[in-house]
Amino acid sequence: MALLVVLGSTGEAALPPGYDEELWCPNDTCLRPRAQPQGWVGPRSSFNECAGSSGETHRPREWGEKVGADARAQLVAEGYTQSVCGEPEPRQPPGRRRRWEAAGMESVAIQPRPNALEFSGEHRLLGRSFTISLIDGAESSALIRAAALRFLERLQHLSKRGAAGLTGGSAAGSSVELDRAALTLRRPPALDDDSDGRSANDAVTTLVLRCTEADPMTLSLDQAEGYTMKIQGRSAAAPDATIEAKSVVGVLQGLEAAAQLAFTASEGHGTPRLPVVIGTDSPRFPWRGLLVDVARHFMPLETLETIIDGAAALRMNVLHLHLTDDQGWRFQSTAYPEFHLAGTDSSRNADAQGGREYYTPQELQSIVAYARERGLRVVPEVGFPAHATSLLLARPDLGPPDTTAPSALADTWGVHQTCLDVRNEEVYKVVSTLFEELAAVFPDECARTTTTHYALQYGSKCSNVECRGLV
After folding, report:
1. For the chain, what percent of residues have pLDDT higher than 70?
2. Which domains are seen in the chain, by residue range?
3. CB count in 10 Å sphere of residue 391
């Protein structure tokens, strides 16, 4: 019996025969990608480690009866040893899920679920006058003020939607007013929904936002994003609700979580409400990115903004924007305008931006600013030295001399045999200029190119020793 591990295109390993996919490591912070049975340490042990809640390193527990005698013997013969973390509990859900069920949190819809969230079972109405107060670093933060306004706009939408239900669709919801300067939402008493016994006198009237750091000039990979959120019960002293964090981005994350709680708790009710909770959260992964491939399918700015809103709601923090490839060139180059002119074809796409399929530097800067306000970095990806069809259409002289220059943009998927000639000094001049243009638009410390694909497509096949060395 051989222990077989098969890696798919997603990088997730298949389980060996005889192991149950439904059994999980009970440690919530385990990063093991199910490449071998839990509790077994061997040649792939670095994939099988997990960190305990107190920071110590240990191993996941075994998979119970699914590890049969033959499998055990085979694993031992291959150099594996068994290391058990705690007593075996086969067929139990993950530890975090068990804690949520014990706390009654299965009735509170929020994604992703925080590290810890205690729900009292109580909900409180939103006050007739609801104000967000900015304290310490939050007081001078333009990012937090903008996020607070977005949060109030969502509550205003909930209030108007609830008013329509209470009044049979009348215009009463238009009296829900948002004072943007005072960060206050006001609604008339006529829109109180106390049908379930909740009194407006016990409503949530104040949300305090507090952080210790100022607005960052640019977002970074190592920025703090954790937060603590408290929505107090009726008998608690003011303030009614608080979101505290070290960083501005942590407050943004907390507001997104609070908005989800408000939407789910208010479903089916006339007056918005919030669940009484105490929660803390910090990201498990510092890079939580979403790749948007506008090179192969152009999207207007409004679509990108909607995508950013959705990514922020899920507490993602990187928009990976794929700008050039064999199928298109989507950023306007002032130094080399022939690239975006040759690399776009608006006739193929109804979503063209103003009749064109590329973004100006000003439009890209607006996307960077929009994402920053929501706690997301924007990382550009450009298709060179490989995936260079759109570039070589305009400058065939930059391609290897022993290859045929492309005559049109690619309209199919897959790896295309088009790339830049890394022996040509002009290539480095052009690429350097393009990166300077990108750096002026994208302040992030990261950018992605297609160097690995270059090695696969051309570099490793090149007969020139210098070429292979550059690759």
Report:
1. 65
2. 1-94 (no CATH), 103-281 (3.30.379.10), 289-470 (3.20.20.80)
3. 33
